[in-house]
Amino acid sequence: MREVRVRFAPSPTGALHIGGVRTALYNYLLARKHGGTMILRIEDTDQTRFVPGAEEYILESLAWAGIEIDEGVSKGGPHAPYRQSERKVIYKQYADQLVNDGKAYYAFDTEQELDAMRERLKTQGSSDQQYSSGTRNSMKNSLTLSAIDVKEKLDSKTPFVIRLKVPVNEEIKLVDLIRGEVNVNSSQIDDKVLMKSDGMPTYHLANVVDDYLMKISHVIRGEEWLPSAPLHVLLYKFLGWEKEMPQFAHLPLLLKADGNGKLSKRDADKAGFPIFPIDWTDPKTKEFSKGFRENGYLPQALVNFLAFLGWNPGTTQEIFSVKELINAFTLERIGKAGAKFDIHKAQWFNQQYLRAKTDEELSEYLFNSLKTENIDCSVEKAKKICAAMKERVTYPSDFWELGKFFFRAPTQFDEQVVSKKWNDDTTKFLGVYLDEIKKLSLVTAENSKSLLEKTSLITGIASGKIMQTFRVALTGGASGPDLMMTMEIIGKEEVTSRISFALDNIKVRVS
RNA sequence: GGUCCGUUCGUCUAGGGGUUAGGACACCAGAUUUUCAUUCUGGUAACACGGGUUCGAUUCCCGUACGGACUACCA
């Protein structure tokens, strides 16, 4: 097997879609598995779609996800530059070569003329309106114009593009590592523009030239490129690079969770989950897109989730560290069908990764929230809270969101529980409990528990009957972690004042 | 419209000519628990359809349907 060199080649036109992150991940996994090289190339040949900040966004997103770049933009390397806009002269050279070899030609058609051609074909009922072997002879190009005319146009700086002269009726075979053999007849392919009138190459020329020059061994990209892959094969052939042609692997698409179709920001917004790695505000439209990072997803969890969208190891193991992923990953085990993006599973992965952390690591998350809330807390207390909350959080912010009551006495009480279960037994039980707890010097989970039993004996009320109202009195909410531990954490002062407050403020509803 | 790609529980998927079609998420139920959650146990639930080939097809082949991608001087 030749040296593995793969590339992730996004264009800086906005936020990096989560599907792009998965593509990058698979590239990265393959590179790491074979001790190869992961290259980041920026495909910015469309100047009209360039969005400032997008490249930085891509870099930051990949770094956050732990996808390391060995060579490329921001990193440098033997094949620099890695930004296509900076490689203009290189592409021109190969485009010229193709023209000289008779594999490509100049075309001078204006936009209006192209439109007219398509319109004409349409009204004729033709099934395709492509600029191809069937139409090129009726257009304005170096194939139909005299050599003198062409020279004159070129000299007078008439805008032109260079088009590939796609042969007629030739079977083009392409072996895709995921889909197997794909055959396309060349008559189906149009005379793609290789060089645009602004002197920039199109994606097709640029990616083939760069992949060759950068010695790419595997092209792993989204399925949307499959239809143009035969064209790329043709280009390799025409350029004389057939032997060095990389292997192709076209990844199945990420689809929306319900209904059909490609996963879009619209759908994600509607369902309330992100589809971009990190927050992004479009500098032009000011449109905001939320990110997985800011929404509390751990990068490892997201990576694990993403890896399983379209790939699986063939075992029942689901939790994989990046190292394990690298080890287990093979292109052969990538599926063919599109995968629906179900955020539930991502949440589950997030929970799993959160739970695997130590109380100490977890308390960092809590401290983050406490800092913005301006609340002081000892490390010991934070760790205890995290230990108690660990099994019930999905996101790091949940430690605060679900555990506010550790720091703030309730002012409101769960309506449902109060109206259903708050009764004379509750007030009686809590009254006695309050008196007893005041006698303790320190409240621990243990002694508050035995006090519970003691109070039960004194009052003759089973503790089970009042536990829910007890919790509401203490925390305001109907559910939460172990109550005794909660009492230990908030301490005697808080426990007594909260019980008193509840007793004074919750009205008994006579049923 | 044309070309290409795809189709196993609701979702991610394993499997593969003869299986009780397996796992995970979600969902439901029971158990545990001071509540909720956790945990444990159990359950509902799938081979798109029609033709072949075959003793036998969900698996192979061909169609159909459905879905998707592409069809720009965008990537």
Describe the overall structure.
The strands form six sheets. The chain has a three-stranded parallel β-sheet. Strands 4-5-8 form a three-stranded antiparallel β-sheet. The chain contains 19 helices and 14 strands. α16 crosses α17. About 45% of the residues lie in helices and about 10% in strands. The protein has four domains: about 180 residues, HUPs (Rossmann fold, 3-Layer(aba) Sandwich); about 110 residues, Glutamyl-tRNA Synthetase, Domain 3 (Glutamyl-tRNA Synthetase, domain 3), CATH 3.90.800.10; about 45 residues, Helicase, Ruva Protein, domain 3; about 100 residues, Arc Repressor Mutant, subunit A, CATH 1.10.10.350. It has about 500 residues and is mainly alpha-helical. The model has no long low-confidence stretch (mean pLDDT about 95). It starts with a strand and ends in a 6-residue tail after the last helix. About 35% of the residues are buried. It binds one RNA strand of 75 nucleotides through β7, α6, β14, α11 and α18.
